[in-house]
Structures are given as structure tokens and as C-alpha cells.
Amino acid sequence: MNVQLENQTCKKTAILESTLILIKEHGFHGTPMSQIAKNAGVAAGTIYHYFDSKDELIKELYVYVKDRLAAATLKDDNEKQPYRDRFIDFWVNQCSFFIKHEAFLYFLEQYINSPYAKHFAMSESKLFNSKVKPFIQYGIDNGMIRKMDYELLGPIVHGSIVAAAKFHLSGRHDFTIDRLHGMAEVIWDGIKEQGELRG
Amino acid sequence: MNVQLENQTCKKTAILESTLILIKEHGFHGTPMSQIAKNAGVAAGTIYHYFDSKDELIKELYVYVKDRLAAATLKDDNEKQPYRDRFIDFWVNQCSFFIKHEAFLYFLEQYINSPYAKHFAMSESKLFNSKVKPFIQYGIDNGMIRKMDYELLGPIVHGSIVAAAKFHLSGRHDFTIDRLHGMAEVIWDGIKEQGELRG
DNA sequence: ATTCTCTAATTGAACGTTCATTCGGTGCGA
DNA sequence: TCGCACCGAATGAACGTTCAATTAGAGAAT
């Protein structure tokens, strides 16, 4: 029974990961269910044992991706550190995650801008909504970040992370944690509450 | 003869605009050629008189969209103005264009993150590449903007414009030019060469 | 003016392919 | 023997594309 559960999880995850990679490479309409099955090492019919339809599969994949992203973002977060340092870690963690897991980045960007995102707006990662979003909101509410709506600031920060990750992935530069820290500091300088000396 | 040419342009444009709106609403694979034809008021076969294939149509649509975006961005640009003011206008123009033409925004975002963008990387708007890109590059080279690669700064600026446009389109706030100017100034403060007093 | 001719634009039914989904069946653990 | 995970060929709908036929319009000839 336990083994079965593990196998179940294993096959389900295999299907999700297979879909992720194929969508990154060929887009939503370029990845047939038959190929998803083949790459996952299962039969076409098996997918329908775990997911109601292709749309449902993609919807679940989105939540899976956001969950993993949120977990990576919050890695080693320490509430006792200064907010600035936590923000920098947050930014670097997320960017590193995208650089390490290219398929997650490209799937997410495609999903966010597709009509799926509008139709399935109710499906979200609980971890992301309960931890990552509130962290930014906290910075806005408590005067560490410029007064802006989260719906405006969130995408701007996200955009900077994605831009940096894509830049590194394009191969123009070696990826180093130091370089990422530098980038994160530039973004922090841009969004932090202004009104002090700069040097 | 002249009338024929105009008609030709007219139908071709109708097909492009029809595709634009349908892709915004249903995504690439959600818009069949048959529906594109119907919405454009032409027969299915007519599309193949102007475009070799669906892929070719989407490729041409991308260049069309980038051309119109570049034209809107550069509207009323005056090289004698200070660089900062030109940048603000550039930002506000582009953001206004996206707010006014929602379909252009959503098509572009979908295209940029799709596998099309990688396969058709050679197809670009001449106007955009010869005017908009160099304008940013000029700011970097001449010390008005932080020293960064264009490939990094470009997407960050683009991301901020898209975030602001989507925010306005979400209906949370009325769209006013003043509000947009405020946003543009925040972005400018973030990317301009630092080293002065702030108040 | 009218007719003829040639070419380019346009049509939409038909074609062949591809794809998501179904379903009858297999094997295995309990 | 029951139920569950799994298989993969079969199915039918949907899609991109083709093509033979039709129309429209511009100029030449009468």
C-alpha cells in the first residue's frame, strides 16, 4: 500500500515533469498527450487516471510549479534578519531557482500570459499566497518599500528576476552568486523607500 | 489598380487584426484558421493568399505589432530635450499604447514567451531595432543610466511598463496620464546613474 | 460603348492528418 | 475474487491546408 502510494506519486510527478519540459520546448499546443505519456514512461490512458483532461493537467502543473518556486524562495529565510537582507535572499533564491530549473521559468512565463491564467485564476499555490506575497506586502505596509500596490510591485520585482535569469541563461555571462547579489541590490535600491543619502 | 492595392492591404490588415484579437482571447492553439477567417470577413483560403502558413502569419503579426509599438513609443520624441524627459515620455507612450490597445499587450507577452520567439528570432521590427533599442543603449553608454547590458535593462524596463499597463487594465484604478508619469519617474529613479542626493 | 481576354483575388467544400479522449482488457496485491 | 493501477489500440472531432471553380477588374480590340 505504501509502495503503491509512492508509485502513484512517482508516476504523477513523472507526468508533471514530462509536461513541464515539453511545454518549455514546444509550447502548449506543440505538446500532444501522446508525447507527454511517452516521455513520462507511461501509457496515454494512464494520464487520465491522474488528471481529468489536458487543461486540468496544466492547471495542476501550474500549482506544482508555484509551490516549488515558493519553497525555493523561502529557503533559509530568517525573520530576525533585517528586511533588506531577507529581500535580497528572496530575490537571489528565486533567480537561482529559475537559472537552475530553466523549464520552470519558461513554463511559468508562458502560463502567466496565456488564457489559462484567466480561466483558472482560482488555482494558486497555497504556500506562495500565504508566505511569499505577504512578505512583500509586509515591506510595503511597514515603510521599507515604496508605497505601491502589491499588484504593481509584485510583477515589477518578478519581472526583474525573470529578466536576470533569462540573461544568465542566454549564456552571455557565467552565473555567480556574487553577480546575482549585485543585481538584487540594484533592484532593492530602486524599490526601497527613498529619502536618504546615496553614495 | 490603386483600389486593388488598397483592398489588398485592407484584407491583409483585417486578417492580422482578427488574429491579434483571437490570440489575445484564446491563445495560439485556441484560434483556428477558420475562426480567424470568419472574424476577418474572408474565406479560409484567402488567408493562404497572403500568408504561407499559420506560423508565417503569426510571425508577420509579431513584426506588425512591434512596428506599431515602436511608432507609438517614439511619438513626439524630441532629441533636444534632456535624456530624462525623453525617457519618461518613452515610458509613458509605450504604457499608454498598451492600455489603449490591450490585444497588442497580451499578444506580445504570449509571443515573447512562446517557442515562436526562439524559432523566428530573426524576424524583428526594423523601426524598433533602429530607434527604440539604440535610445536605451545611448543612455547606458553616456552615463545617464546605470551601467548594465541592454539585454538585462531592456527586459526590466519592459517588465515595468507591462506591469503598470496590466495594473491599469485590471480596473483597480482610473487611467490618468499624471499617474503614469509618477510611475515612470519611480522607474527612472531606479535605473538612472546613482551618486547624487535624494530627497 | 461593348465585347473579349487575361490575371489576380477570392471562395468554401474536401482532404488527410493529428490530437485528446475513451474503453475493453491485463496483471497484481489483498 | 475484488478492486485498482495501468495499458494502448480505437475513435471521432477538429484542425491546417489545398484546389478546382468563380468572380472582379483593367486594359485591348472592335
Structural overview:
Two copies of one chain form a homodimer. By secondary structure, the first copy, chain A, is mostly helical. The first copy, chain A, has two domains: 1-51, Homeodomain-like (Arc Repressor Mutant, subunit A, Orthogonal Bundle), CATH 1.10.10.60; 60-191, Orthogonal Bundle (Tetracycline Repressor, domain 2). In chain A, 73% of the residues lie in helices and 0% in strands. In chain A, helix 1 packs across helix 6 (102-112). The first copy, chain A, starts with a helix and ends in an 8-residue tail after the last helix. Chain B binds a DNA duplex (30 and 30 nucleotides) through helix 1, helix 2 and helix 3.
- Provide the CATH top-level class of the largest domain in chain A: Mainly Alpha
Total tally of structural domains of chain A: 2
- Tell me the major beta sheet of chain A: none
**Spatial separation of the terminal alpha carbons of chain A:** 63 Å
Oligomer type: homodimer
The appropriate CATH architecture of the largest domain in chain A is Orthogonal Bundle
Using the coordinates shown, work out and report the CATH topology of the largest domain in chain A.
Tetracycline Repressor, domain 2
Gross morphology of chain A is elongated
Strand content of chain A: under 5%
Rg of chain A: 19 Å
CATH superfamily of the largest domain in chain A: Tetracycline Repressor, domain 2
What are the low-pLDDT stretches of chain A, counting only 5+ consecutive residues below 50?
1-6
Mean pLDDT of chain A: 91
Portion of residues within helices of chain A: over 70%
Structural class of chain A: mainly alpha
Largest interface: which pair? Answer: A-B, 43 and 43 residues
